[in-house]
UniProtKB/TrEMBL annotation:
The gene is hemH. Keywords: Cytoplasm, Heme biosynthesis, Iron, Lyase, Metal-binding, Porphyrin biosynthesis. It is found in: Cytoplasm. It catalyses: Fe-coproporphyrin III + 2 H(+) = coproporphyrin III + Fe(2+). It is an enzyme of class 4 (lyase). Its main location: cytoplasm. Fe-coproporphyrin III binds at Y13, R30, R46, Y47, Y126. InterPro entries: Ferrochelatase (IPR001015), Ferrochelatase_AS (IPR019772), Ferrochelatase_C (IPR033644), Ferrochelatase_N (IPR033659). This is Coproporphyrin III ferrochelatase.
C-alpha cells in the first residue's frame, strides 16, 4: 500500500547567508527601503561580533527542518512527510516553499512556524502569505497556529532552566531572578486583542512552575526602532531596575520566544545584555537555545501530525 505524502512547510523569519547579503536582507524587511550607510554598518558590525560574522540561524534552521522530517517519519510511519523551508525575509521565501511542494506533486500540506507563540503580526503574516500562494497553486494546506504549552516544549525549556541555574555556583535558587524574554512587537497589537503576550506568559508560568522557580518575571527584547511604541519593559531597562530597586545580583535569562541561536540571542542577549549586566555588577547567564533538541522536534512533529489527523 502506497503511503500518503504530506508536505510540511516549515516557516521562519530567515537570515542572510553571508555579510554581503545583509543589505538586501534588511531592505526586504524594510519593504524595499535600503538601510542607511550608518544603519548598515551597525547591522554588519553586530553580525561580525557573533563569532566573526558566522550566520548560525540559517544553518540551525536547515538542521531543524531536516531533523523535523526525520522525526515525523519515525513517529508517524503511516505517512510520508516531506519538509520544505519557507522564509519570511530571505530565499527560499514562503511562496517558494509552497511552489516547490506543488511542483513535486504534493496536494496536501501542513504549515508550521518555528515560533511557538501566535501573533497576527508574526505567525499570522506567515500563514497569510502561504495561504495565498497555496490557493494559486491548488495546494490544500492547513496550519499550526501555536503550541506554547505543548508538554514536550515545556519539558525542554524546564530542563534548560534547571541546568542553567547550576551556573550560579553557591547561589541558592531564591537568589537568582529568572527573566523570560521574547521579541517585542508594536504596542498596537494590544488594541487587536492579539494573543501573543498572553501565550508567552502561559509558557513562562508553566516553565517556572515545573522548574520550581518563584522569583521570575517577563521582559521584552530586540524592539524595532520605529516612531510607534513597542511592548516593554525592555530587558536592558529591567536589569537596571532590578539592580537599583531590589539589589538583584544574579539573573538567568530564558528567551522562550526564540527557538534557535541567532542575532537576537547571540548579540542582543549574549553581548548587549551581558555587557549591561556587567556594568551593573550583575552575574547574567542564559539558557541554551532549543535548536534541534529531540523534545522540540517531537513538539513540532506532534502538532503537525495532529493537523493531518484533524483533516482526516
Amino acid at each position: 500500500m502506497t503511503k500518503k505524502t504530506i508536505g510540511v512547510l516549515v516557516m521562519s523569519y530567515g537570515t542572510p547567508e553571508s555579510l554581503d547579503q545583509v543589505e538586501a536582507y534588511y531592505t526586504h524587511i524594510r519593504r524595499g527601503s535600503p538601510p542607511s550607510a550608518e544603519q548598515l554598518k551597525e547591522l554588519t558590525d553586530r553580525y561580525e561580533a557573533i563569532v566573526g560574522g558566522f550566520f548560525p540561524l540559517r544553518e540551525n534552521t536547515n538542521q531543524q527542518v531536516s531533523a523535523l522530517e526525520e522525526t515525523l517519519n519515525r513517529e508517524h510511519p503511516e505517512y510520508e512527510f516531506r519538509c520544505y523551508q519557507g522564509l519570511k525575509h530571505a530565499s527560499p521565501f514562503i511562496e517558494d516553499g509552497v511552489e516547490a511542494m506543488a511542483k513535486d506533486g504534493i496536494t496536501e500540506a501542513v504549515g508550521v512556524v518555528l515560533a511557538p507563540h501566535y501573533s497576527v503580526m508574526s505567525v499570522g503574516g506567515y500563514i497569510k502569505r502561504a495561504k495565498e500562494k497555496a490557493e494559486e497553486t491548488g495546494l490544500s494546506i492547513r496550519f499550526v497556529r501555536s503550541y506554547q504549552t505543548h508538554p514536550s516544549l515545556i519539558q525542554a525549556l524546564t530542563e534548560r532552566v534547571e541546568k542553567a541555574l547550576g551556573l550560579f555556583e553557591g547561589v541558592p535558587a531564591k537568589g537568582i531572578r529568572v527573566l523570560f524574554s521574547a521579541h517585542s512587537l508594536p504596542e498596537k497589537i494590544l488594541e487587536m486583542n492579539d494573543p501573543y503576550p498572553e501565550q508567552l506568559l502561559e509558557t513562562a508560568k508553566a516553565v517556572a512552575e515545573r522548574a520550581g522557580v518563584e522569583a521570575w518575571q517577563f521582559a521584552w527584547q530586540s524592539a524595532g526602532r520605529t516612531a510607534t511604541p513597542w511592548l516593554g519593559p525592555d530587558i536592558l531597562d529591567v536589569l537596571e531596575t532590578l539592580k537599583r530597586e531590589e539589589a538583584v545580583e544574579n539573573v538567568l535569562v530564558c528567551p522562550v520566544g526564540f527557538v534557535s541561536d541567532h542575532l537576537e540571542v547571540l548579540y542582543d542577549l549574549d553581548i548587549e545584555a551581558k555587557r549591561k549586566a556587567a556594568e551593573l555588577g550583575i552575574h547574567l547567564e542564559r539558557t541554551e537555545s532549543l535548536n534541534t533538541d529531540p523534545l522540540y522536534m517531537h513538539t513540532l512533529s506532534d502538532v503537525v501530525a495532529a493537523e493531518v489527523e484533524r483533516k482526516g
